[in-house]
Design brief:
CATH architecture of the largest domain: 2-Layer Sandwich
InterPro entries: FAD/NAD-bd_sf (IPR036188), GDP_dissociation_inhibitor (IPR018203), RabGDI (IPR000806)
Distance between the termini: 29 Å
Shape: globular
Strand content: 25-35%
Family: Belongs to the Rab GDI family.
CATH class of the largest domain: Alpha Beta
Pfam families: GDI
CATH superfamily of the largest domain: Guanine Nucleotide Dissociation Inhibitor, domain 2
GO biological process, one term: vesicle-mediated transport
GO cellular component, one term: cytoplasm
């Protein structure tokens, strides 16, 4: 291994694998290492035995759960917006040829005391029970404005400057009430909390537009999900990197990392490699990150679909914070047998949120109440780490932890920022790419 590389990547989490693939496509010589024996790191998909090893100290799964190999359970639950950044990355790199996707059956929002389908078009808004009669027309006007809005076409702006006007002011202009604002901000714009209300309205409008564009693609929901779990994503990008010359090593403990003559030096099992830059998940550099909070995730195994979802085989449910007296939303993502993640007759519902109290699991009670009987559950509380620096000085580029959001937009934004800091240029996502070496 005693070689020099353009980049050494530590950890095979989703972010690290995407960056490894993107750098390899750019012609960079990449060495990718992970102390684990499987791809995915924090964003892996585990079978039942691996799940019990992680959460139950190696206890054996009960027979009632079925065959362990039928399970591919995500540690970090997320769906993919069909017009979002991740789809653009998949098309840009042509990684789609390694993956199969299935459309998620429905998207719901909780309004005390029950869940309702999320309306995302002017027509759906008019029939939604989420709003009163007069509110529906105000909401329809808002959706029409958003759908017609084009940042570079002032004729669509209605004389409003969304770069200076706050989202709170825009909602007030359309005379929208608090409950309607709640579902637009949290179920369509997909914000974790209400901080966005006092920021320029442009980003929120673009987020609602993205949701509507994604919904238009498949009509039943804006989300897609990869067959066999999210763990397929890092593996697909790892394969992309390998095609372009990237070197992968699993089960490779990192003994020492040092810095000499502007180069990064990594030692492992008597071997040494150097690189111009190093990319890593936060676990490899605990001294270079800070803990800014915690995320709780609860993996729940069910014997039936989630009630009140029209027996959906897959769905997302968002519980906006104000509906349950919180500061941040609670997310539920449900998938099942058609996605090749569990045996027939089982359903995997994963609940996640940002921790706000000293009793994190109690915070999930509103979500548990919606799920029906839970056969088994596996709970984790993870710190949320952010890097202390941008990596420009020491050439150590560290990704942020995975947040509680139910989609990949913030994850992909972090990838694009790291890419720009390393290569000193924006990642331009082009979906009409020339053939790869493998295809040639």
């Amino acid at each position: 291994m005693d070689e020099h590389y353009d980049a050494i990547v530590l950890g095979t989490g989703f972010k690290e694998c995407v960056l490894s693939g993107l750098l390899s496509v750019e012609g960079k010589k990449v060495l990718h290492m992970d102390r684990n024996g499987y791809y995915g790191g924090e964003s892996a998909s585990l079978n039942l035995v691996q799940l019990f090893e992680k959460y139950r100290g190696g206890a054996k799964p009960t027979e009632s759960l079925g065959n362990t190999r039928d399970y591919n359970i995500d540690l970090v639950p997320k769906f993919i917006l069909s017009s979002g950044l991740l789809v653009k990355m998949l098309l840009h790199t042509q990684v789609t040829r390694y993956l199969d996707f299935k459309v998620v059956d429905g998207s719901f929002v909780y309004k005390t005391p029950k869940i309702q389908k999320v309306p995302a078009t002017d027509a759906e808004a008019l029939s939604s029970p989420l709003m009163g009669f007069f509110e529906k027309f105000a909401c329809k006007k808002f959706f029409v404005y958003v759908q017609n809005y084009e940042e570079n076409n002032p004729a669509t702006h209605d004389k409003l400057d969304l770069k200076t006007m706050t989202m709170r002011q825009l909602f007030a202009k359309f005379t929208l009430k608090e409950d309607t604002i709640d579902f637009i901000g949290h179920a369509l714009a997909l914000y974790l909390n209400d901080d966005y209300l006092d920021k320029p309205a442009l980003e929120a409008v673009q987020r609602v537009k993205l949701y509507a564009d994604s919904l238009q693609r498949y009509s039943i929901s804006p989300y897609i999900y990869p067959m066999y779990g999210l763990g397929e994503l890092p593996q697909a990008f790892a394969r992309l990197s390998a095609i372009y010359g990237g070197t992968y090593m699993l089960n490779k403990p990192i003994d020492k990392i040092s810095f000499e003559d502007g180069k990064v030096r990594v030692e492992s099992q008597g071997e040494t490699a150097t690189a111009d830059v190093i990319i890593a998940d936060p676990s490899y550099f605990p001294d270079k990150v800070k803990n800014t909070g915690k995320i709780i995730r609860s993996i729940c195994v069910l014997n039936a679909p989630i009630p009140n979802t029209n027996n959906a085989e897959s769905c997302q449910i968002i519980i906006p914070q104000k509906q349950v007296g919180r500061k941040s939303d609670i997310y539920i993502g449900c998938i099942s047998f058609p996605h090749c993640v569990c045996p027939k007759g089982k359903y995997i519902a994963i609940v996640s949120t940002t921790v706000e109290t000293a009793d994190p699991e109690k915070e999930l009670a509103p979500a548990y109440a919606l799920l029906g009987p839970i056969v088994d559950k596996f709970i984790s509380v993870s710190p949320y780490y952010v890097p202390l620096s941008d990596g420009q000085q020491d050439k150590v580029f560290i990704s942020e932890s995975y947040d509680a959001t139910s989609h990949f937009e913030t994850t992909c934004e972090d990838i694009m920022k790291i890419y720009k800091r390393i290569l000193k240029k924006d990642l331009v996502l082009v979906t009409d790419k020339p053939q790869s070496p493998e295809e040639q």
